[in-house]
Amino acid sequence: MRLTVIGTGYLGAVHAAAMAKLGHEVVGIDVDTAKVAKLNAGEEPFHEPGFPEVLREQLATGRLRFSTDFADAADADVHFVAVGTPQRKTDGRADLTYVDAAFMALTPYLKPGALVVGKSTVPVGTAARLAEVVAARWPLVATHAGGGEAPRVAWNPEFLREGFAVKDTLEPDRLVYGVADLEPADASSPSSRSASEILDEVYAQILQRDTPRIVTDLATAELVKVSANAFLATKISFINAMAEIAEATGADVTTLADAIGFDSRIGRKFLNAGAGFGGGCLPKDIRAFTARAEELGRGDSVAFLKEVDAINLRRRERVVQLALESCGGTVYQHHVAVLGLAFKPDSDDVRDSPALDVAVRLNGLGGHVCATDPQAIETARRLHPQLDYAPTLAAAVAEAEVVILVTEWAEYKALTPESLAALTPARTIIDARNVLDAAAWRGAGWTYRGLGRP
Ligand code: NAD
Questions:
Q1: Which residue's alpha carbon is nearest to atom 44 within ligand 1?
Q2: Over 90: is that where the pLDDT of 433 sits?
């Protein structure tokens, strides 16, 4: 099939390459000229394991290319919209400027019968509104002058995890289609295919593996995505709330998580207490969900998400507090090394990253903060050029009095008291992800501080 993917960021670029791998002809369209040039040259604009390989492989087949020109969308049967929906600075709502702009730019190039499939995470009601926009503009579009079957809008939320994006796109644990034609009102054109039939053709290879597929209305599909993220955020903040109680009682939250996690109704995943969640999705999605629920007069239903957010932000503050305590009450002019800048390992994404936040706060308190990350230094530097970045772990810790591990990259998890002691004068480690063996570090003479651990 001929497809476009509008917006080639973390989601869209991976989706475009993955769709080409499924055998489709794909044009990725983005307004960012530099990004498009890089992608066409086979260079990944961001760090995502496995993506460079699939990008280069698919460019070489000739089935995948990238463009800044929406006219290149004209031949496609299906258009995926994967542009950003960041948080509005003023009120926490989702900023739909980019989604609206993408739909407006695309509409003049839609051919009769085309399907526009939203993948961006949007407030419930957005898809129905955009379907009306497309329907209203269709008769005005010069090239088609109202002829032929009007294009339709569907919503197909994306659940990929950064760090596993290629695998999650090619082997999703489920597919969700939100469609307006669940029960076609117009049976007079039986020849035209339903939106879900078209999506089934796009994902035929994935569906052959018995991947669960849920076809529902537009509103449910939009809500599936935000409620999944709300649930995950709540689970993380639940265990972080238990960490706060553990800190007041001398209990150990990691043992608590293991013990409750054995209950299959609870499960151990997402029960790692630490510096909390971040990234380009969970924080902004729970805030946008809260704002949307309030607009709908149902603010009370998700009021708990404000507490989920507050607990999450308090954990960053707790890491800062531990650093202060470790330096005798102030970090002013003390040397602190921060290991990790990305919001999670195997990514260079620093959007709303707890690690970067901790580094910035300690720097603001007058500390000599030296931060490092295997992949995210450049993305962090763009946002916070005032920080001191070290290219390697060794350089970051060379003068440190305190070392703080905030992003659990494999190479930081593999640190031992001996290997780190050889690189730094510090003998205090703050394990903001509870990934180190506390007893081993203490036994080797280090002061070890975890979150929610005695
Ligand atoms: P991103 O910021 O990495 O990418 C967005 C891209 O859209 C950018 O390259 C930008 O230049 C482009 N863009 C903006 N306006 C455009 C326009 N009018 N026309 C064409 N391109 C335009 O964002 P992302 O992380 O890829 O997220 C995209 C959407 O997917 C968001 O709604 C996000 O919530 C959702 N999502 C992201 C993930 C993830 O892990 N990153 C997972 C699931 C869902």
A1: 158
A2: yes
Average pLDDT value for residue range 258-265: 98
- 10 Å CB burial of residue 71 (0-12, 13-18, 19+) is exposed
Residue 168 located in a structural domain? yes
Q: Are residues 60 and 105 in the same domain?
A: yes
Asked if the structure places residue 441 within a domain, the reply is yes
Q: Is residue 41 part of a domain?
A: yes
Pocket residues: Cβ below 6 A from ligand 1: 6-12, 29-32, 35, 82-85, 98, 101-102, 105, 120-121, 158, 160, 162, 280-281
Look at the chain and report how many structural domains it folds into. 2
DSSP 420: H
Contact criterion met (CB below 8 Å) for 106 and 70: yes
Query: Of residues 114, 281, 323, 400, which has the active-site annotation?
Result: 281
On average, the pLDDT of the chain sits at 96
Q: What is the end-to-end Cα distance of the chain in Å, rounded?
A: 58
Residue 268 sits in the same domain as residue 205: no
* Owning domain of residue 191: 2-216
Cβ-based neighbours of 191, under 8 Å, separated by 6 or more: none
pLDDT in tens, 263-293: 999 999 999 999 999 999 999 999 999 999 9
